[in-house]
Design a protein that fits this description.
heterotrimer; A mainly alpha; B mainly alpha; C alpha+beta; A: mainly alpha; 12 helices; about 75% helix; flat
C-alpha cells in the first residue's frame, strides 16, 4: 500500500507542474492585462506598473522566476490588491470554503446514505420510488437554480433564514450548505442504493438472513460495508465538483470564500492570484483523490487491482 | 455471432418497453426535441423582438408563458433556448464520445503497456480542476461556441474512456474473440464484428447520461456569465435572468427552470432505463 | 469549527423563539454604527494608487484633503486648509493649514506633508493612475513624465509648517474643486517610509494597526470580502462634530443580495438598486429610495478612424435616430435623464445649451446624403460593451432603433470587462459603450477628455478648434466668460459627434430613514461630520 501511496505522490508532482505551466501561459495569452482600467493608463505609467511587477521581462524569465518562487510557497503579490500577497488571500478565503465544503459533505453523506440504504431495503416500494425521484431532481436541478429558490422560499417568503453571509448572523450557514450538498446527497443516495442492492444479493447476506439475524443487523453489520464502497470511491472526484459548486454558492450567498476570489481574479486578470489558486485547488484535489483511494483500499483490499 | 447480438437487442428493447418510467421519459424527450427542431415554425412570437412599452407581463392568452423585462415572449425564448441547450448537449457529448470511445477502445483492445499508459493519463487528468480551466478558457478566449463544445467535451470524455475501456477489455478476453484471433482474423474485422456491436449499448447509455451533465455544465457557465454569447440564449441564460428577477417576475425563473429540470430528469431516467434494459444485473 | 449539532440546535431555538431580533440598523441607532453597503471589495487604501468608487467611500471617512466637498454641492469648503488666498492673476494659491489638524497618531499635519505626498503621486515609478489631477501645477507634468527629476522645480512649496504655496501653469479657476479628490490627499510620510520606499506599491502601511491618516475615522479592521470597520478618530481636528462612532463597510457585489440585506435591516445604505426593482420602488414612492443627480454621462464612443464612421453625417444620423426618452423611460427606468450634451447639465453651475432632437427624418436625410439611402449597402456595424445586463438592454434597444429608422444592421459584441477595456484602448472597436464619471465638479473633467491625444479620448477624433477653445477657456478667471467659451466647445463636440451622449447618470441607492444629513451631492461625497443617526 505504501508503494501505491508513493507512486501517486510521484505522479502528483509533474501533474502540478504541468497544471501550473499551462495556466501560466494561458493567462499571459489573454487579451486584457491586469492594469487596464476605465481611466486610461498612459503608456508611461503602464510601463512603470509592468516594471514593478516584472511583466516587461521576457516570458521564459518570468516563468522561471515564478516557478522557483512558487515551489517555496511564494505566489507573489496580488495584482488587484496592492499590498496583499496571494498566499495571504488564499489563506483568508480557504477556511471558509473548507468549512462550507465540510458541512455540505456531511449533510450529503448523512442524508444520502440514510435515504439510499432505506430505499435499497425497501426496494420498489414508495420508500424507494419517492426518495429516489427527489434524488433525481436534486441531480438535475443546478445549484444556481436551487439556491435562489431556497432563498425565495425560506429567506424571503417565510423569512426564516438569513440570505447572505457566513458566520455573521445565526443560521446563515443553512441555506448555502443545503444548496451545495443537495446534488451530492442525491448522488450518494443513488450510489449507496446501488451498492447496497448489489451487496444484498450476495450469498453471504442470504446466509446471514437464513441464520435468523434481524434485518437491522444484516444491514448494519454486513451489507453496509460493501454497499458504501461506491460512496467512498465517489468522494474523491466529488471534491472537484464541490469546488466548482462553491463558486456558485459563494456568489449567491455572498460568502467570502476562495471560490469567489478565484472567479473575480479570473475576471480581473489578477495573474498571480489565478495561478496561485489554480495550483492550490489542484493540490487539494490530488490530495483528496489520494485519501479517497486510500480509504477504498482500507475498506476493500480487493479493489486494489481495479484502480 | 451476429445472431446473438440481434436477440440481445431484441431482449433489451423488450425490457425497455416494460420500464414504464423510462418509456414516458423517452416520449417526453422526443416531444422536447421535436419542439426544439420545429421552433422556427411553431414559435408564436420572435424570441428577440423587444416590446419595451410592454415590459414583463405574467402569462396570458397572447404570451402563454409571459414576457421578460424587455417584453420578449418567454415561450418562444424557451423554445429557442431548447435548441441552443440541446445543441450544446449533443455536440459536446459527441466530442466527448469520439475522444473517449476511441481512447477506451484502443486502450482496452491492445491492453498491456498501451493500456497502462493511456489509462494512467486518464487517471492524471481526472485529478485536475477542470472547472477552473474552463472558466479560464472562457474568460480568456471569449465565449466562442466552438471553444465551448471543445472545452466541455474535453472534460467529459474521461468517464466515457474508462467505461468503454473496461467493456472492451472484458469482451476481448472472451472466448469468441480469442478464437477469432487464433483463427487469424485481422483486428479490424474482429473490432467491427465482435467488439463494436457489443459496446454500442454501453456507449448509447453513457452518451445519454452525459448529455445532461454537459447541459448542466453549460448552464453553470452561463450563470457565471461565461456560456453562450447573445443573441443565442440557452436555458442556462434564461435561468440566470430569471434569478435576477425572481421576486418581481417569478415566471421568468419558474418556467425555464421547470423545463430544464424536466429535460434533465427525462434524460437521466431514460439513460437509466437503457442501462437496465441492456444489462439487467446492474441496478 | 463549530460542531454541526450546534447548528441544528440553533435552528430549533431560532424557530422556537420566533421573536423579532433587533436588526443591525436598530442596534446602529444605539451604538452609533453606520452599516454601509459598498459594492465590490476595495482594492486598497493608498489614495495615490486606488481608482474606484468603493475606495472613494472608504477614503472619505479616513482622510481629509485640503478642502472637502460641500454636502449640498457647490464650492468646496475648508478641510485641512482653514483658508486660502488666490493671487490676482489666479496662478498662485496660498493655503493656511490648520493649527489643530492632526494625524491619527497625534502628529500635526504640516504643509510639508502635502509637498511630499504630491511628490509621491507624481513619482513615475509609483504607477499612480491619477497623476494628471496635479498636472495643472507648474512643472508637475514634466516631473511625472521624467523630463525633470528635481521636484523643487515643481510649483508646490511649504513656506512654513502651516503655509502651502502652489503655483499653477495657468489660472485654472477650478483648481480648488480638484482638491477634494482623494488622489490629492496627503499621506503620513513616516508611516509610508517605515514600510517601504516612496514608490513601493505593496507596502504594508495601509494595514489596520499601521494605517495613519487625518480624517474623521481610523482604520480598525479589514476582513477580506467580509467587512471593513473604521472607528472615530479622536485626533481628528473637528471630532466634536462627528456623532457617528463607527462605520462598517460591507463588500456586497451582488445587487439582489444587497437589496435583501437592506430590507432585512442589515444595511443603512446600499451601493446600487437592482435594475428591475427601481421602477417598483419608484411606483411605490418608497421612502428609502434615493435618486440623486450624479456627474456622469452614459455615451457611445465612435471610432472616427473607421472608413464609414469618419463621415460626420453618418455619426449625426446615428445620434438623431436614438429615442433617448424611450431608453430612460423604458429601458434604464431609474430616473436617468436623456443627455443632449457631453457635460452633465449643472456640473459646477454649467448648463450647456446644446441639444439633440430625436429626428428620424433628418437622420434618414443625412444617411442618404452620405450615400446610403435607406441603409442600402451600409456595412454591418458592431457595438462593443462589457458584459452587463443594463448595457445589453440599451444596446438591444438602440440596435432596434437603428434598424427601424435607418434600415441598418448592427451586431452586438459583449466581452468581459478587461477585454472590453483593452479593445477600446487599442481602437479595436467601431462603436463602444462607455460611461464617464467626473472626478470633480467642473465641466473640464468631461470636456478635457475629448481633447486630441488624451488617453481617455479613444475615438481618434482630434479637433484643433476644440482644443484651442478649451485652452482659452481655462485661462479665463471670470466663470461666466469661461463657461461661455466652454459652451462653444461643447457645441463643436455635439456637432461633430465623436461620442453619442445617451443619458445622464443618477446615483440610485436605498437609504435608511435613520440616516440624517445625507444630502444629494453630485460627486457622491458625504462627509461624516454632517451625517447623524436618529429616528
Amino acid at each position: 500500500m505504501l508503494k501505491i501511496l508513493l507512486n501517486r505522490i510521484l505522479i502528483a508532482i509533474p501533474v502540478l507542474l504541468v497544471v501550473a505551466s499551462i495556466t501560466f501561459f494561458l493567462i499571459r495569452l489573454a487579451p486584457g492585462g491586469p492594469f487596464d482600467s476605465e481611466k486610461a493608463v498612459s503608456p508611461q505609467v503602464l510601463k512603470n506598473l509592468n516594471e514593478a511587477y516584472n511583466l516587461n521581462a521576457p516570458l521564459y524569465e518570468q516563468y522561471i522566476s515564478y516557478m522557483s518562487n512558487a515551489i517555496s510557497g511564494d505566489f507573489g503579490p496580488s495584482f488587484r490588491y496592492p499590498g496583499r500577497s496571494v498566499s495571504e488571500l488564499i489563506l483568508t478565503g480557504l477556511p471558509v470554503t473548507l468549512e462550507l465544503a465540510f458541512y455540505s459533505i456531511i449533510f450529503a453523506v448523512i442524508i444520502g446514505i440514510v435515504t439510499g440504504v432505506i430505499a435499497s431495503i425497501r426496494k420498489n416500494t414508495f420508500l424507494d420510488y419517492f426518495p429516489m425521484s427527489i434524488a433525481m431532481i436534486g441531480i438535475c436541478m443546478p445549484t444556481f437554480l436551487l439556491g435562489p429558490l431556497l432563498v425565495l422560499i425560506f429567506g424571503i417568503n417565510f423569512e426564516l433564514l438569513p440570505v447572505s453571509g457566513w458566520g455573521t448572523l445565526p443560521g446563515d450557514k443553512f441555506l448555502p450548505v443545503i444548496t451545495l450538498g443537495a446534488a451530492y446527497a442525491a448522488y450518494i443516495a443513488r450510489l449507496s442504493r446501488g451498492g447496497m442492492l448489489e451487496t444484498l444479493n450476495q450469498d453471504y447476506i442470504r446466509t446471514a438472513k437464513s441464520k435468523g439475524l434481524s434485518e437491522f443487523q444484516v444491514v448494519i453489520r454486513h451489507a453496509l460495508r460493501g454497499g458504501l464502497l461506491p460512496v467512498i470511491a465517489f468522494l474523491g472526484p466529488a471534491t472537484a465538483g464541490l469546488i466548482g459548486g462553491s463558486f456558485v454558492v459563494e456568489t449567491i450567498f455572498q460568502i467570502p470564500g476562495l471560490g469567489r476570489f478565484y472567479v473575480e481574479a479570473a475576471f480581473n486578470r489578477d495573474y498571480t492570484m489565478i495561478l496561485g489558486t489554480t495550483i492550490f485547488f489542484s493540490t487539494l484535489i490530488i490530495i483528496f483523490n489520494l485519501l479517497s483511494d486510500l480509504a477504498l483500499l482500507l475498506v476493500n483490499p480487493q479493489a486494489r487491482s481495479q484502480t | 455471432m451476429s445472431n446473438s447480438s440481434d436477440t440481445m437487442w431484441r431482449d433489451a428493447m423488450h425490457r425497455l418497453m416494460q420500464n414504464k418510467p423510462a418509456v414516458i421519459s423517452g416520449a417526453v424527450l422526443l416531444l422536447i426535441v421535436t419542439l426544439a427542431l420545429l421552433a422556427p415554425f411553431i414559435a408564436p412570437h420572435s424570441y428577440s423582438y423587444q416590446n419595451l412599452d410592454l415590459g414583463a407581463v405574467s402569462p396570458n392568452s397572447t404570451f402563454w408563458l409571459g414576457t421578460d423585462t424587455l417584453g420578449r415572449d418567454l415561450f418562444s425564448r424557451i423554445l429557442y433556448g431548447a435548441r441552443v441547450s440541446l445543441m450544446v448537449g449533443f455536440i459536446a457529448t459527441l466530442v466527448a464520445l469520439i475522444i473517449g470511445v476511441s481512447w477506451g477502445i484502443i486502450a482496452g483492445y491492445f491492453g498491456g503497456k498501451i493500456d497502462s499508459i493511456m489509462m494512467r493519463f486518464v487517471d492524471i487528468l481526472y485529478g485536475l480542476p477542470f472547472i477552473i480551466f474552463i472558466i479560464l478558457l472562457m474568460v480568456i478566449f471569449g465565449r466562442n461556441i466552438w471553444l465551448l463544445f471543445l472545452a466541455i467535451g474535453a472534460v467529459e470524455w474521461l468517464t466515457m474512456a474508462r467505461i468503454v475501456r473496461g467493456q472492451v477489455l472484458s469482451l476481448r478476453n472472451q472466448e469468441f474473440v480469442l478464437s477469432a484471433i487464433a483463427l487469424g482474423v485481422d483486428n479490424i474485422s474482429i473490432f467491427f464484428r465482435h467488439i463494436l456491436p457489443n459496446i454500442l449499448g454501453t456507449i448509447a447509455v453513457y452518451a445519454t447520461l452525459t448529455i445532461p451533465q454537459v447541459m448542466l455544465l453549460e448552464a453553470f457557465l452561463s450563470f457565471l456569465g461565461l456560456g453562450v454569447q447573445p443573441p443565442m440564449s440557452s436555458w442556462g441564460t434564461l435561468i440566470r435572468y430569471g434569478v435576477e428577477s425572481m421576486e418581481e417576475y417569478p415566471w421568468m425563473l419558474i418556467f425555464p427552470g421547470l423545463i430544464f429540470t424536466i429535460t434533465l430528469f427525462s434524460l437521466n431516467f431514460f439513460g437509466d432505463g437503457l442501462r437496465d434494459a441492456i444489462d439487467p444485473r446492474s441496478e | 469549527m463549530k460542531h454541526p449539532y450546534v447548528s441544528i440546535i440553533y435552528l430549533f431555538l431560532f424557530l422556537a423563539s420566533c421573536s423579532k431580533v433587533d436588526s443591525l440598523v436598530d442596534q446602529g441607532l444605539d451604538d452609533g454604527i453606520l452599516h454601509f453597503g459598498n459594492g465590490s471589495e476595495p482594492q486598497g487604501l493608498d489614495p495615490h494608487i486606488v481608482t474606484g468608487v468603493p475606495e472613494h467611500h472608504l477614503l472619505t471617512s479616513l482622510c481629509e484633503g485640503l478642502v472637502i466637498a460641500n454636502p449640498k454641492g457647490g464650492d468646496n469648503l475648508p478641510g485641512i486648509a482653514s483658508s486660502w488666498n488666490i493671487s490676482k492673476d489666479g496662478t498662485v494659491y496660498t493655503f493656511i493649514i490648520r493649527e489643530n489638524a492632526k494625524w491619527s497618531n497625534g502628529d500635526p499635519v504640516t504643509a510639508d506633508d502635502f509637498v511630499w505626498s504630491w511628490m509621491r503621486i507624481l513619482t513615475p515609478s509609483l504607477g499612480s493612475q491619477y497623476p494628471d489631477m496635479l498636472y495643472y501645477i507648474k512643472g508637475a507634468r514634466d516631473y511625472h513624465q521624467g523630463m525633470n527629476s528635481d521636484f523643487s522645480q515643481v510649483g508646490v512649496k511649504a513656506l512654513d509648517p502651516n503655509t502651502l504655496e502652489v503655483t499653477l501653469e495657468k489660472p485654472y479657476s477650478f483648481f480648488i474643486k480638484l482638491l477634494s479628490h482623494y488622489s490629492t490627499y496627503a499621506v503620513h510620510k513616516p508611516t509610508v517610509l517605515k514600510f517601504g520606499s516612496i514608490d513601493d506599491r505593496n507596502g504594508e502601511w495601509t494595514r489596520p494597526n499601521n494605517f495613519v491618516c487625518n480624517g474623521p475615522m481610523n482604520l480598525y479592521s479589514w476582513e477580506l470580502n467580509k467587512k471593513i470597520v473604521v472607528k472615530k478618530n479622536p485626533n481628528y481636528w473637528d471630532v466634536e462634530k462627528i456623532s457617528i462612532n463607527e462605520v462598517h463597510f460591507y463588500p456586497v457585489s451582488n445587487e439582489s443580495t444587497e437589496d435583501r440585506m437592506f430590507r432585512a435591516g442589515q444595511l443603512h445604505i446600499t451601493n446600487v438598486i437592482p435594475q428591475e426593482k427601481c421602477p417598483v420602488y419608484m411606483e411605490q414612492n418608497s421612502p428609502y429610495l434615493r435618486i440623486d443627480p450624479y456627474i456622469g454621462t452614459y455615451f457611445y464612443r465612435i471610432n472616427t478612424n473607421h472608413p464609414i464612421l469618419k463621415d460626420k453625417r453618418i455619426r449625426q444620423a446615428l445620434s438623431l435616430s436614438i429615442d433617448r426618452e424611450l431608453i430612460v423611460n423604458k429601458v434604464s427606468k431609474c430616473g436617468q435623464t436623456p443627455a443632449y450634451s457631453f457635460s452633465p447639465p449643472g456640473i459646477g453651475g454649467y448648463y450647456p445649451t446644446t441639444s439633440i432632437n430625436f429626428d428620424p427624418e433628418q437622420a434618414k436625410k443625412l444617411l442618404a446624403e452620405a450615400g446610403f439611402e435607406k441603409g442600402v449597402n451600409f456595412p454591418k456595424l458592431e457595438i462593443l460593451f462589457n458584459t452587463q445586463e443594463g448595457h445589453k438592454q440599451i444596446a438591444l434597444a438602440i440596435q432596434q432603433m437603428w434598424q427601424r429608422h435607418l434600415g441598418i444592421q448592427v451586431e452586438l459584441t459583449n466581452t468581459d470587462w478587461k477585454v472590453y477595456l483593452s479593445k477600446e484602448m487599442i481602437g479595436d472597436f467601431q462603436i463602444s459603450r462607455a460611461g464617464w464619471i467626473g472626478d470633480y465638479d467642473d465641466p473640464n473633467t468631461f470636456l478635457d477628455l475629448m481633447r486630441p491625444k488624451r488617453g481617455n479620448n479613444k475615438t481618434g477624433w482630434e479637433n484643433l478648434e476644440y482644443d484651442l477653445l478649451i485652452d482659452e477657456a481655462n485661462s479665463k478667471l471670470d466663470p461666466k466668460e469661461r463657461y461661455e467659451i466652454l459652451n462653444k466647445a461643447e457645441a463643436i463636440l455635439i456637432d461633430e459627434m465623436p461620442i453619442i451622449p445617451i443619458y445622464t447618470y443618477v446615483r440610485q441607492y436605498q437609504l435608511s430613514t435613520d440616516v440624517k444629513g445625507w444630502d444629494p451631492n453630485p460627486t457622491d461625497t458625504h462627509h461624516l461630520k454632517y451625517v447623524t443617526l436618529s429616528r
